[in-house]
Design goal:
Largest sheet: 5 strands, antiparallel
Number of domains: 1
Order of helices and strands: EHHEEEEHEEEEH
Radius of gyration: 14 Å
CATH class: Alpha Beta
Low-confidence stretches: none
Structural class: alpha+beta
Helix content: 25-40%
Distance between the termini: 15 Å
Number of helices: 4
CATH superfamily: SMI1/KNR4-like
Mean pLDDT: 91
Strand order of the largest sheet: 5-6-7-8-9
CATH architecture: 3-Layer(aba) Sandwich
Length: about 140
């Protein structure tokens, strides 16, 4: 997988600051992804999630720290998901073109599995995508 439109370079300090602000410990593989790319657009971008209608979908953009566009910024998206009050703690890491989120489930302050959050449903519906960030990355492929 390639990443286009990667974000500005960041260091471990910026990730630690984000983790402190949001109260979430991110998985090492995701921290490495942020250090390498800091968000961006994956190529290929297709993903098939079991369960939700309108599949397959895409991973439109991975969020990053300090991105110029708010809708691509991790902290901005974390605040948005938190304000949705969906009842569970999630940390958004990407979205699809329909505005739905790919999020880490957070348990005892640590990010764990990756879920697809269908925010078009009322209430939002959650679908397990992968047990880890690595598993999520492995599911992204060329579907078109």
């Amino acid at each position: 997988m390639k990443i286009e439109n990667a974000g500005p370079s960041i260091g471990p300090e910026e990730i630690a600051e984000l983790e402190k602000k949001v109260g979430v410990r991110l998985p090492p593989s995701y921290r490495e992804f942020l250090l390498r790319f800091n968000g961006g657009v994956p190529r290929p971008d297709g993903i098939d999630v079991s369960g939700p209608p309108d599949m397959p979908t895409d991973v439109q953009v991975f969020f990053g720290i300090g991105r110029d566009v708010n809708s691509s910024d991790l902290y901005w998206n974390f605040s948005l998901v938190k304000n949705m009050r969906i009842g569970l703690q999630f940390f958004p890491l990407a979205c699809d073109s329909g505005g739905n989120f790919f999020c880490f489930a957070v348990d005892e302050g640590s990010a764990m599995e990756v879920f697809y959050v269908d925010i078009c449903s009322s209430p939002p519906v959650f679908y397990l995508v992968a047990p880890s960030f690595e598993g999520f990355i492995d599911k992204i492929t060329d579907l078109w």
